[in-house]
Amino acid sequence: MSRTHTQPLPSKEASLFRQLVEQYEEKRYKKAVKTADQILKKFPEHGESLAMKGLTLSNMGADKKDEAYELVRRGLKADLKSHVCWHVYGLMYRQDQDYKEAIKCYQNALRIDKENVQIRDLEGFVATRNTLLVLKPNHKNHWIAFALAHHANKNYSVAVEVLQAYEATLTEVAPSEAYEHSELLLYKAMVLDEGGRLEEALTLLDSSKDKICDKVGMLEARASLLLRSGRAAEAEAQYRALLALNSDHYKWHEGLQAALGL
Which CATH architecture describes the domain 1-111? Predict the structure, then answer.
């Protein structure tokens, strides 16, 4: 019988798990997989390690996508109460632009509603989030979920406006929330990108570089935006800088080749 919540890791493996997360964030995917395997060798059903290994594999080639999803699902089965597992599952769906499923996962990860609002359709979800936002305007997660709902419904401009409205409510960002705010900025840049506002996304990344914790993720997003904006020389320089950090990253090699017109 599977457990619904994984026991905490011993100190050695807990330290390895922190390394795993850092390696993933730094795009050192091969090392991250090895670190995950070290943990899973002793704790084969550790949900969060299974999920992180799956998320890592999803960034190592389309041929690993099925295995990646299977690992994340195994992780969730082992630890249904883990916000990490649900967040990772949401990231997987977001990568594949399946925002309807991503929202469900983020809902579970954030645990924003005791009522556990069901998403029957996107338009209904937008309406529900709007109602909750009106009722609880100071609840941060309602703002984010409302933006996600519009994003999923391809209302990119409205999603950006919601994020901007939320930012306007912030007087300052507490140090403990710096990383979360950083992720929000990267998410806003992604929405601008998908809405066709590439230059605005670039401007946002450049103006927020001191606030964004995931420097490699920011540089990667910037390189892609430069390439698709027709700024090939700048994109080339950005991809070369990224490859200097990790020469094994196949997507960055593809980006460099595209920038060089190969």
Answer: Alpha Horseshoe (1.25)
